[in-house]
Amino acid sequence: MAIDEGLAQRIREQLGEVPGLTEKRMFGGLAFLMNGNMAVGVHNDELIVRIGPDDTDAALARPGVRLFDITGRPMRGWVLVDSSALTEDATLRDWIDRGRSFAATLPPK
User: Fold this and answer.
1) pLDDT higher than threshold 70 for residue 1
2) 10 CB contacts (<8 Å, ≥6 apart)?
3) Which residues does the UniProt record annotate as the domain TfoX N-terminal (predicted)?
């Protein structure tokens, strides 16, 4: 399954040189992990963001956002953001920051 390499590159540029950052192929896409915990990723042409279960409903109210469900089993705390909602770098940065913030609450793997 092909991923949007342009989106992946935009994420890399926004993340820069972050200690503990790694890239890994996951979910048929590309994941960006902070100390072993997924923060954001790319699935096809959508952004995957791990935000935590408590923030799911608020995130789903934003434009272009849907629950992460690629297997028929929706995952609360994970959302997909359509590329059409990521045209502005500031919007992408906000989602990346949300994913990084949640990943920072988790113990390193």
Assistant:
1) no
2) 86, 89, 92
3) 13-100
CATH class of the 5-104 domain in this structure = alpha beta
Alpha-carbon gap, residue 9 to 4, rounded angstroms: 9
* Mean per-residue pLDDT of the chain: 94
3-state secondary structure of 73: coil
> Nearest 5°: phi and psi at 66?
-140, 160
Q: Taking the complete model, does pTM exceed 0.85, yes or no?
A: yes
Alpha-carbon distance of 23 to 10, in angstroms, equals 14
Q: In angstroms, what CA-CA distances link 109 with 7, 9, 17, 27?
A: 26, 25, 19, 18
* Tokens read off for 90: 């500031």
Distance, CA of 69 to CA of 38 (rounded, Å): 16
- What is the tens place of the pLDDT at every residue in 17-40? 888 999 999 878 999 999 999 999
